[in-house]
## 1
Amino acid sequence: MFYRVKAKFRPETAAGLSEKLKDGTIQNQNPDGGEIIDGLNRAVVNESGQIEFSIVCYCSTPLAHERATVLDKHFDALTTEVIEGYEEHEGRPFMDYLQECISLKETSN
C-alpha cells in the first residue's frame, strides 16, 4: 500500500540520520531500506514545518518496520494515510533541510 506520511523532524538527530543515509546503513536494511531512502528523497518541509512524503509499505501495521528501525528515531507525531500512489508535496526538499540542520548545529558549537 501507498501511504502519505506527515511528521515532525527532530533536528537534534540530523547528523545521525545523515550519517546513516551516507554510510549505507539504511540502504542496506531489508526489506525496506531503499524505499525509506526514496521516501526521504521525496520528502518536503511544508510551510508549517511539517515533513510530508509518500512511501510504499506491505506491513500489516503501516510502516511498522520503517518506524521501528528509522522513522521513530528521527521523527515525532508521525501519521499515515492510505493513498493511491506516490505523491508530490509542496515545500522545501527535506534533504536540503537536513543539511541545514547539521550546518546550524555545527555553527552553534
## 2
Amino acid sequence: MTLVLAILLALFVLPTDWGIAAVAAATVWEVAQTVGGMWWSTRRRAQVGAEALAGESARVVRRCDPLGTVSVRGELWRARCEGGAETGELVRIRGLDGLTLLVERDDGAAPRPRGPRA
C-alpha cells in the first residue's frame, strides 16, 4: 500500500527528484515489511494436533479408572490414567495412544471446585 501511494505521489504531486526518493523509500519499506513478516511467521514450528497437547493440564470430566474423559482446551478427550483420577481433578497429559490421551495425576494442583461459578 505504501509503495502504491508513493508511486501516485511521484506521478501526480511531487517533483521528479522527490518522487524518485519517495518511491525508493517506499520500496525499501515494503521489502523490509515482507522480509520481517516472513521471519516472524517462521520463528518456530506450528504446534497443532493432538501431539501438541503433551505437557498440558486437563480437567477430569468423567472418573478415570483407568479409562475416563478429560477436558482440555475446551475439547473432551478419552483418557487413560493408570493411577486413577476423580472428577474435577487436574491431570497432566504425557502422551497419546491412538485417540486416547495418556494422563497422570497432577499432584501439584488442587482440584477445581464444582458447582456454578460466582
## 3
Amino acid sequence: MAKWIKTNFPGVRYREHETRKNGVKRDQYFTIRYKLVGKDREEGLGWASENWTAAKAYDRLKELKENRKAGKGPQTLAEKREVEDKRKEADKEAQDLADKESVTFGQYFEKVYFPTFEIGRKKDTTRKGKEHFKNWISPVIGNIPLKDVKPFAIEKIKKNVLAAGKTPRSLQYVFATIRQAWNMARRDGLVLGDSPTKSVKIPKVDNRRVRFLSHDEAETLLKALQTKDHLTHDLALLSLHTGLRMGEMASLKWSHIDLDRGIIRVMDPKSAEGRAAFMTEKVKTMFEVMKRREPGDYVFTRGGDEPLKDTPREFSEVVAGLGLNNGITDRRQKVCFHTCRHSFASWHVTAGTDLYTVKELLGHSVIAMTERYSHLAPGTLQNATRTLERAIDNAGQKKTDAGQVVNFKQ
C-alpha cells in the first residue's frame, strides 16, 4: 500500500498511484482529515487526473468546517455529494420542465424547488413549507403557469390566510415560501422579475414577546422541572441566569466551561460573533456537581455523544402542568423555553441595567434587537416619569421660593 504524504495544506494529504501517471508525475489521490463530534474522520476526494489539487482539497475542507460552524449546509463529503447529486437531479427536472410551454407553480414547487429546499434543513422547517403550499399556495396558484402568477392572485392568498384567523407573521412565512420558490424559478430562467409577493402589503407585525416570568414563577418552574427531568431543569436554570439560547446551550462543550473564572465561552452563536456569558453562583454550583467529561464532549446530552437537537418536551409538559398558559391565546403572552432568555433580559432591564450592557449579555448584533426589551420594564419607565415630574415640581418650588425671598427683602 502506498504511503500517505502530507501537503502544505493542513488536513490534506495524498498517496501516489503505483503505476498510473498524470503527466510526468504519478497520479495522486487526495483526502481531507477533520474532527466530527470529537472523532477523527478522513474522506477521499479524488485523483489529480480528475483535476483535484491540494489547494482545491483544502478549499473543500474549509467549506465543510464553515458549514459545521454555521450549523447549516453539508458538513461531510458524503453529505456534500448527496447535495450535489440532488442538485443535479433537480437541475435535470428543471430543464425538463423548462422544455414545456407552461410549467405551473405547483409543478415547479413539488418537482424542483421543494426537493432542493429540504436538503440539510430541520424536519420542522420542511414540514411548515409543505403546509404553506398545501393549505394556502396550491389552492390559489398551484395550477397557474409560473409566468402568469400575478399580484392579484397573491392578494387572494393573503385574504384566505387572514380570514382563517392566522397572524400577519404566519402570512409572512407563506409569502417567504412563495418568494423563495419564485427566486429559484427565476434562477432557472423560467420567470423574469421580482416575486409577485413584493407588490402585496402585509399588515404590520408586532411579534415581540411581552410575557416574562417573575422570580417566584421562575423558582416554581425550576422546582417542578427538577422533579420532572434534571437535564431540562439545568437548561432552564442556565438560560434564566445567563440568557443563553437553546442552540447555544446545546453546542456547549466542556472546554467552553471555565469554572475558575466563572465564564462560559459561547462559540459560533446565532450572531456569528462569540462572547462570554457569566455564571451566577447557582450556575457555577450546577456545573460543579455535574459529571465532567472530556474537553471535546458536549455538556448537555441524553447519555450519548450527540448534542441535543430540540428543546426537551418535558419543559412544555411542566409549563402545562403548572397552568402558566391557561386561558392565554396570544402567543406573545405564552410561556415557552425562549421565555427563560426573555426573562433574563427583562430582569436586567427592570433592575436598571442599561440596554447596551443587556445587548452584550444577550449577544445581539445590533442595539435595535435589544430595544424591544425597553417596554418590558413598566416600573422602570414609570419611575423615570416620576423622576421627571419631581424635577419639574422642584424647579417650580425653587422659583416660588426665590420670589418669596425677593419680596421679603423688599
